Amino acid sequence: MPFPLSSEQKQTAFWVAVWLGFLFLLVTLGPVLTPFLAAAIIGYALNPGVDRLDRLRFGRFQMPRALSVALVMLVFFAAIIALVLIVLPVLEKEIPLLKAAIPAFLAKLNDLLGPRLHEMGVKVRLDSTGIRRIVSEQMASSGDQIWSSILDSARVGGTAVLGWLAMLALIPVALFYLLLDWHPMLARIAGAVPRRWIGSTLTMAEEADTLLAQYLRGQLLVMLVMAVYYSVGLTIAGFEVALPVGILTGLLIFIPYLGFGLGLLLALMSAMLQFSDWSGLVAVAIIYGSGQIIEGFFLTPRLVGERIGLNPLAVIFALLAFGQLFGFVGVLLALPASALLMVAFRHLRRHYLGSSFYNA
What we know:
Elements lengths: L6 H22 L1 H25 L2 E2 L2 E2 L2 H55 L8 H14 L1 H38 L1 H10 L6 H39 L5 H10 L6 H17 L4 H27 L6 H21 L1 H20 L2 H4 L1
Antiparallel strand pairs: 1-2
Helix pairs in contact: 2-3, 2-5, 3-5, 3-9, 7-8, 7-10, 7-12, 8-9, 9-10, 10-11
């Protein structure tokens, strides 16, 4: 015969069910919440700057919160536009030159690999004529499939592009209102926590805030060091676009694969255009290969991992684990999420060591 539930147990079960339903709704609405989540992450990083402007006084005039938010957002998006303006001139200059340099590069590649491929029984020329012939044969043999794939991709891709544009347009709007209402919003969240848990919840939130602030400072230091490293390395190797490519690679290093990949692509294009032999490509391989080792195995574990209390092995495991579970977004958020989990684990361990289950 089941035991009757008390009034307090019924209330607890009801509110647990409500919160589980709320979490399920959030998971279901994941794609819709993406711009709001991005705005919340950016807002967390920008809010200290807004708070500092709020405290400024010019005589009797105090900076309004809305004006502080607008100024901080203006500086933030101006920095993003500046990064774009660093990349676009390089691409605009190098892409046309790259098209002209491709035939000479393919001729070198054919001279280097062609004899070895013929020895292996592969009869193909790696020049522009040979590659054009291979592509035309493939398109002739599977033209209908390629055409249908292109149409399908265009339909899906067009919808995806419109979705991305809508999301990007929504992020600044959500960011503005989140920053404007930041402290009242946090107060409302704290007010929704059951009173018996409010003390431990606020303690965990303060610890998590301290760790995330240390993470941001460590990540900024890694970005600065890598920007200097790539700029100096490419300058020593004699690259004409060393400064913009090096700065871009370093500043975008916080986005796994994208920053490194874009910088590597620009450096390879410069090497093909500027150097008549293979020395440029060898220099790029050495500089970017060493940079990945320095950043992945030394700087990030020490400057970021030690600041949030994670040892280098834990940092590497966190990157691999979150990447496996959540893909690219998981890699991007691996370290701050690990810092939050570590705070929760620390409190759970303290509760476990003080429980009768452990001490009995």
